[in-house]
């Protein structure tokens, strides 16, 4: 996967917080957060091929990688954790922090990301009506994926990322990460990923939300590591932090999180009702259900149309697990 030509940028968003924006080859640019305190903390580490940009931006801020004490992983998706897995080979004193089950639940990280690749390819296939269209999308994605693997193999074997996710400090709900002046409470926020964590600094009202609240609905891959019901429960849970400033991994900072959370909740409820209404007409496959929700040819309007398909499938899976929607099991046909 080829990273964009941008070399990254940063801005100071609070007294000791820097938002580092790094390019990546898919979705929106990634935000890494630097907490510049007695024990400097990075929140997430970006995509593996953006590592050189991260080091450069840190230098521009006035701190080297050697000074970073902690890297906190919000979740194990490739654009959040793979940069840190590479950095371990260069700066071995950095302590990594993340969900307490990450290392045991994901014994081999490359197998885990290959599962993401297979699920993404499946949705790319579904996203197009014609075979030629879907084959082109899948082939383009495969070329990018093979490029990423090739570049990975070019790394010095001693510096190559481990296939195991090493978590030096495993974290659970309400654990505290102290960087000196600041104390960050760990919040378990599963749904987008079952191992998703967020951080809350209660004295300063900062909330680092990873991919939980990003200004729209994040991807939920039911057959990979996402869960729609957990995501919905998490939205209810984080409403208690609605007086905080939210700093997401993608998109703009959110100073009215209650409004954003309510918009996401309302949107999900509308999508759910629309799905049930569409299924009452006749048997549907995933593509047909999605087309009823999004008029026209949505694949031509949105580069991440397959992410919407993943979300709709997750909702369908959730509905089929409920008594009131058992009848849709006979109407909905999985690809």
Query: What's the CATH architecture name of the largest domain?
Result: 4-Layer Sandwich
N-to-C span: 27 Å
CATH H-level superfamily title of the largest domain: Ribonuclease Z/Hydroxyacylglutathione hydrolase-like
Strand content: 15-25%
**Shape, please?**
globular
Describe the largest sheet: 7 strands, mixed
Please explain how this structure is put together.
The chain folds into three domains: 9-106 and 158-261, Ribonuclease Z/Hydroxyacylglutathione hydrolase-like (Metallo-beta-lactamase, Chain A); 109-154; 272-333, no CATH class. The chain is built from nine helices and 14 strands. The protein has helices spanning 51-61, 78-87, 102-105, 109-127, 131-154, 228-238, 257-279, 286-293, 305-320, and strands spanning 9-14, 17-22, 30-35, 41-43, 70-72, 95-99, 169-171, 176-178, 183-188, 197-201, 206-210, 245-248, 284-285, 332-333. The protein has a seven-stranded mixed sheet with strand order 1-2-3-4-5-6-7. The longest helix has 24 residues, at 131-154. The model is unreliable at 1-5 (pLDDT under 50).
Briefly characterize the structure:
The chain is α/β, with parallel strands linked by helices. The chain is built from nine helices and 14 strands. The strands form three sheets. It has a seven-stranded mixed beta sheet with strand order 1-2-3-4-5-6-7. The protein has a five-stranded mixed beta sheet with strand order 8-9-10-11-12, with no helix packed on it. It has a two-stranded parallel ribbon with strand order 13-14.
Key traits:
335 residues, alpha/beta, Metallo-beta-lactamase, Chain A, 3 domains, 9 helices, disordered N terminus
